[in-house]
Amino acid sequence: MPTIKTSNDIQTVITTFEVTPGTCQDLLEALQVALEEFISKQPGFVSAGLHVNDAQTRIANYSQWQRREDFMAMLRTPEMRERSRAFNTMCRSFEPVMYEVTATFD
């Protein structure tokens, strides 16, 4: 489970996918399989979560990595490159962006 703290010395990545209601479930299932079978087993992986908006037009993936380099290495693997190409066929676009947690509120 993701833990969001400013004191965490980890890399946060939020990837948003633009989808249609007709492809949302297909992409969501593909992302779940990728996370369970491959991504979560990569060096430096900490945690991840998937979110879907009510209209089923956006999926957000929140992931945490020990280091920026761990996330980048995972993206460069042949398996992830193949999976990313498949994701691209199920959505209009997607973009992973690295973030730093600057504040949290309870």
Automatic annotation (TrEMBL):
GO molecular function, one term: monooxygenase activity
InterPro entries, per database record: ABM_dom, Dimeric_a/b-barrel
Gene3D superfamilies to which the protein is assigned, alphabetical: 3.30.70.100
Keyword Cytoplasm: no
Keywords tagged on the record: Monooxygenase, Oxidoreductase
Domain ABM, residue spans: 11-101
Source domain of life: Bacteria
Any single Pfam family the record assigns to this protein: ABM
Protein name: Antibiotic biosynthesis monooxygenase
